[in-house]
Write the structure tokens for this entry.
Amino acid sequence: MRRILWMLLALALAAWAANLKLYLKDGTFQLVREYQVESDRVRFYSVERSQWEEIPLDLIDLKRTETEASTRQAELDKETKMAAEEERVERQTKRDISRIPQDPGVYWIEGTETKVLKQAESTVHTNKGRSVLKRLAPIPIVPGKGTLELAGAHSASVFTNQEQEFYIQLSEVERFGIARIKPKGSLRIVEDITFMPVTNEVEEEPEMVDIFQQQLTPNGLYKIWPKAPLAAGEYAVIQYTAGKLNMQIWDFAVKPTK
């Protein structure tokens, strides 16, 4: 559909550019397909009468005619370039979609290869100890404070590109994005957690990065990338439902080359 629209736009632009205004010094104009300056006369093809005609050159405001023609051509070139770029991006997006597996997870494309970002196993640390966070099987809630943690001081997945693009295929409709992770000794803190007394509600506080996101398919495939280059440090692509303590985590580190 987009290709057809692009072709129609190109045809419309071509038709628009084909007609010119040949201005006369009295302020009127002739709508022409083209014109030629021949000695003391101007020969032009009249759009209205569909025939070639001539008019004395000294009756023509040639400067105004040429200025408008140049402006119209510049606008045409700009619109054509924009349409071509949009078509190129659409083709590239379709190629990328075809390369991303339909299985839930996080992926990135490196050259001709599609690579999988490994999902991390996290633990919830409270004053009662540590419990492995398992999807669809939340841990018992104990009033107080806690943290969601990853083992190890650094991620094994390292990127030098500070504007790294990822593709996330959601397992269900949930929040998602890129979060900063805070190293703490031999651990990394994904988020702080507050377990509310009485109501047993959970408040989660991941530190999210501002991102761009583009939905690529109706079934939950998104392309995400940071709005600003990521500083060196630890990060993760996350998917979760707030208050459910069911976060899925795909950790990575950024180490820019000097």
